[in-house]
């Protein structure tokens, strides 16, 4: 089972992108093969919202609510991932984190707990970056610094200057990640999903 | 009539006072049946509020009113210097259909108005917890 950790700040568009990504992964008409995918939704609150939307669109969703998977629910996260691997045998587990989570901590927990390797895709919000950059500095940097790939989302709501500035700031946070611009309003090119999954040809 | 022995039973009512967090059956029943039920906590500088609200009304009308009230809530938070992580709501809409047979023929009845559960999740920064809770409670009062 391969694991993708989909992180990024609140409201950055993780779920909107995940809907497209999951459709790409499970639909063989757009790729050479379809994957069996389980989505693990983490919410810090008691109520789940996004899981209902994902489930209503036909995806296989497990929940981890009432805490953060990178800290307060770290044990439960590892147990859930191991349980999903054993019971469902999916090709991919996609963990959509809460917007408060540090994806690298989840990656470390999975590796240390059950020797499970994972990729990190961090979604960032071009429309709010300049407003959040300073007050949410620690969290934004923590979410970007070990990402394998960073998506600058909502590019339709930002100017070219703002996008270039944002890209430069993200590059300072993470010198190795691929940084790709997206807008979840459009159909994302399958080559971007291949990069997200790390399965480019 | 039962002949069991009553000695040792307190039939005069509760023998304890109901303080905050009392978990006796009466208090638990009251909490579980509050509408809306709202809870909150703080994490990493964010105030996190979860709420659940039950109603029976036209779903479209509820959606329109909810949209207005969420925008009003967002506006209040922004005006007070808060940063909204996200405020999300979902509507679980249930319509009941009943099928019944007593002799030979099945009769079918449908509910006229759906039973709706509204779930709310709010994560907000830089707003005191009590203030955010007050705003959200006001929102539900306006929704009722």
From TrEMBL, chain A:
Gene3D superfamilies: P-loop containing nucleotide triphosphate hydrolases. Pfam families: cobW. Residues 3-180 form the CobW/HypB/UreG nucleotide-binding domain. Coiled coil: none annotated. InterPro entries: CobW/HypB/UreG_nucleotide-bd, P-loop_NTPase, Zinc-reg_GTPase_activator. GO terms for cellular component: cytoplasm. PANTHER family: COBW DOMAIN-CONTAINING PROTEIN, COBW-RELATED. This is CobW/HypB/UreG family nucleotide-binding protein. It comes from Murimonas intestini. The lineage of its organism: Bacteria, Bacillati, Bacillota, Clostridia, Lachnospirales.
TrEMBL record, chain B:
It comes from the Bacteria. Residues 1-21 are annotated as: Disordered. This is Uncharacterized protein. The lineage of its organism: Bacteria, Bacillati, Bacillota, Clostridia, Lachnospirales.
């Amino acid at each position: 089972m391969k694991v993708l950790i989909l992180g990024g700040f609140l409201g950055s568009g993780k779920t909107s992108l995940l809907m497209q990504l999951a459709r790409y992964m499970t639909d063989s008409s757009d790729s050479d093969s379809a994957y069996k995918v389980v989505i693990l939704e983490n919410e810090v609150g008691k109520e789940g919202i996004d899981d209902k939307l994902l489930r209503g669109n036909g995806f296989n969703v497990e929940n981890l609510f009432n805490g953060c998977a990178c800290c307060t629910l770290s044990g439960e996260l590892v147990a859930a991932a191991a349980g999903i691997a054993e019971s469902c045998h999916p090709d991919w587990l996609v963990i959509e984190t809460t917007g408060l989570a540090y994806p690298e901590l989840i990656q470390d927990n999975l590796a240390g707990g059950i020797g499970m390797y994972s990729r990190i895709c961090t979604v960032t919000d071009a429309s709010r970056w300049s407003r959040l950059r300073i007050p949410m500095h620690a969290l934004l940097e923590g979410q970007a610094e070990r990402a394998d790939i960073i998506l600058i989302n909502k590019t339709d709501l930002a100017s070219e200057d703002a996008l270039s500035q944002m890209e430069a700031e993200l590059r300072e946070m993470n010198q190795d990640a691929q940084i790709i611009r997206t807008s979840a309003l459009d159909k994302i090119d399958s080559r971007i999903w291949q990069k997200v999954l790390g399965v480019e040809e | 009539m039962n002949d069991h022995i009553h000695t040792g039973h307190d039939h005069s009512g509760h023998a304890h006072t109901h303080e905050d967090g009392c978990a006796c059956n009466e208090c638990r029943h009251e909490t579980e049946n509050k509408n809306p039920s709202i809870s909150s906590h703080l994490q990493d500088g964010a105030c996190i509020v979860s709420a659940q609200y039950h109603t029976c009304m036209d779903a479209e009308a509820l959606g329109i009113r909810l949209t207005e009230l969420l925008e009003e809530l967002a506006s209040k938070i922004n005006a007070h210097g808060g940063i909204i992580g996200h405020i999300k709501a979902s509507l679980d809409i249930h319509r009941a259909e009943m099928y019944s047979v007593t002799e030979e023929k099945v009769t079918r009845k449908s509910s006229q108005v759906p039973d709706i559960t509204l779930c709310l999740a709010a994560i907000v920064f830089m707003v005191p917890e009590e203030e955010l809770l007050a705003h959200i409670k006001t929102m539900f009062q306006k929704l009722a």
